[in-house]
Protein 1
Amino acid sequence: MKIESLCAGYHKKIIVKDVNLEVKKGEIISLIGPNGGGKSTLLKSISGELKTISGTVYLGKEDIRKIPLKELSKKMSIVNTDRVKPEHMTAFDVVLAGRLPYSDGFGMFSESDREAAKKACELMKIAKFEEKSFSDLSDGQKQRTLIARAICQDPEFLIMDEPTSYLDIKHRFELLDVIKGLSEQGVTVIMSLHELELALQISHRLLLIRDDGSVSCSDPGEVLQKGMIKDLYGMSDEMYERVKKQLGVGADATDNRSESRGAEKSGKEIVSTGRDADSPRHSSYFLNKECEYYPCHDLAEEKFSCMFCYCPLYDMEDCGGTYTYTEKGAKNCKDCTFPHDRDNYPAVIKKLKEKMYGKN
């Protein structure tokens, strides 16, 4: 994808201006910035949903405006913040609707279409409620269903506006794993995110959209090292210090995030370097490097969860290992990774429920 001199807005009023960007196959670009800055407007313009005021979006060498709608829907799928309200449709029906571009002239679906829908349901872990009426689903379940529908289109480009909306923390991280997997398969992902820690974790590059409509693109390491977030959101010094702690920006945090995949320049000097896909990734939501006891466990950093520093299983006989208590009363597990491995979060919750209500 190539975006040239794009200005986006409504009724000739420019909201986002002079966007120039080349996006490589399989790249993950996250849009960040203050509310009302124009993230949704830019995404709608990139996808062709909103007519640009000026400039051009190219998919390959084709101007997106000249691609027939049915062909475009085979190349690009979209997840908007607008809530669809289908009548008398199950979750599976909604997912299957993503195959409409591939259906015959009568809108009939083939067996391969249904297999693609099943695969998307499994990927987003909604198979257990796929036969429920879409209108009866929770907001989080609806969001996962709509993402599954977009994936079901088998797109080359996936455009998502706040895809983590309505998702709890577990499903947010599962979605990141799905996005990473799609990226590794060559799907280009462009999305807006409000959760800075998630954007820093998953993105190859960040598109910073400011209140004045100006846009810049940098890799996550550069964004942290140069303190761009402070200016982007207009933070006070005190506020920014709090955000830095939340994001885990310490002596070595920026080094971890700024590992480069190497300089890959193409055309204009607008393609920044990203990070090695195999380098350790973690969310500062789980990891607190400012803690005086860090590191307190042998578990790999990208799997660690400081959420369970005060172990919720401390009084359970089958907690999984031996431990001692620190001077501050924190349970310091010695040979058990069960409560500290963030992937075990659902299992920990299950044990807590058993403790509270019994196994039955």
Protein 2
Amino acid sequence: MANFTSVCRTFLKCVALLLLMGCQSFFYYPKKEKLFDPTSLRMQPEDVYLKTRSGEYVHGWFFASQQSDSKGTLLFFHGNAENLTSHFLMFQWLPAQGYNFFVFDYPGYGASSGKPDPKGSVEAGVAAAEYLYEFKDSRPLILYGHSLGGIVAMRTAEEVQGRIPLRNIVIEASFASYKEMGRQVMKRRWWTWPLQPLSYLVISDQYAPKSLKSISPTPLLFIHGSGDRAVEVESSERMYAEASFPKELWVIPEGGHGDLYEMNHGELREQFLSYLSKTSTASQ
């Protein structure tokens, strides 16, 4: 009986490790193929290829403001699935409102080389910020991270702090710890619920943000849908509590994961544009 119990424990530990290793890969679901053509929306982005510190080449699209004088530049860190050829749709309306925006792929996504991991994602974010500041817009940048892109955006902000001015950091439906997100995934099923503590042993936070307080005094905005099933709204509430002022938290009633700007006839778009205008005026 003792031997049987020992075998069962060993088996469960192996299963737990495999599941948690899967949690690390759970963060990345890249696709290489082109999923949507922006020319069908009469948009013609500029193709950009950047080299990261590790030598990978990452692909980006730069969409210029459709107004004569741009109001700023938004650097978009997309989520964990597909690639930029679908994610650009989230802000396809922004150039008409006077903003440039740049969306890029992490290593292993779309036309980018390499394989996805936390280090490579942050290096891609840093390369994108450096490119925009040097070649496109020397004014403070707006960093916007959705889902997985949120944690990458926050760490990127720390990496470029003091070198590249930042106007806003906006984090939608995201998390500040890979370990904690892994634990939340384990928590969702009864048969993995007891294994939650192992996420802290297997998953690394080496490339997560070191401290949300360090981002201050750049204004931080957290956005989350109350009905989000991919990343629970409590994640944004925890980040908001940890961050220093200036900060805001918007919880969108019944909002899901990635549909917030399409709800209620685009109501959030106007709210977001007002926020950018307000914070731009305050920073001058």
Protein 3
Amino acid sequence: MNRHSRTRTAAAAVALASTTALALGACSTTKTSGPGAVGSSGGSKGPIKIGLVTKTDSNPYFVKLRESAKAEAQKNGDTLIALAGKFDGDNAGQVTAIENLVQQGVKGILITPSNSAGVLGAIKKAQDAGVIVIALDTATTPPDAVAATYATNNEQAGKLLGQYVKARLGSTKPQIVAMDLDPSASVGIQRHNGFLEGMGLPLQTPDIIGSALTQGDQTKAQAAMENLLQRVGGQVNVVYDINEPAARGAYQALKEKGIADKVLVGAIDGGCAGVQNVKDGQFVATVMQFPKKMAEDGVNAVVEYAKSGTKPSGFIDTGATLITDKPVPGLASKDTTWGAANCWG
């Protein structure tokens, strides 16, 4: 081979190496953010990082939801990072939590939104970064702001309680005090409206003789009930409660007033303490939710999305069961023995 031939051969080898390097570089280019980010649309390998944002970190219901989500993630070798608002209604705290989780590189975020519309901007930013967002317990407004919602049908839960209380009242005119949540929380609105539907009453019924916003907190509910009783006195014969902590606070105020045995106190939650309250006669009934199922289904949905790109969609009803030891004809219920075997907390 002459000198010119050797020079041409070397040049060709360099060109081939350069072309190969460019091709390999193009094949290995990855997208680190946005809907097409690696791992955000399937194909993740190894442990998956999942975020959870609850309304608070102290309410027993959200404690159970967090524990169940963490256990389900760990079972598969994945990681759950749990954050929460400071109180039920702390929208700003939840927005900060979402932003924090995105920065930590989670594949998906499970959220129980305090304000069903207030977190939409943060959710959209997370989705734009390639993170799937799924609601647990409480739907967003609009519902399709997230991929899917795993939750109790809260309107149906309220309706079950209302139907039961109506049957227990019989022909007695209802005089209702409502221990509500927060006007910005869809779960509170749905349960309240469902309860009135079950009672056969219009939304603006005069049969609600008093109401208070409790944030689902026992201490706040007790103080609110004490204040209301100064005005309505012994007129009240029904107390509707957004959850069991609020019901316990209301019951304590009624007990101290000496009229607890004259009032039908009902709640929604299904925690073990609430089932015991029903058994002890403090509540006439509670409606059980299943946070363990919500949490497990949500975690598994994120894992499936990270691995295969398959997204859940729509509203997935995780169930609601009326718990009482004094059943009424025509309304399905379970007793406190069943409740104790299936409760949470």
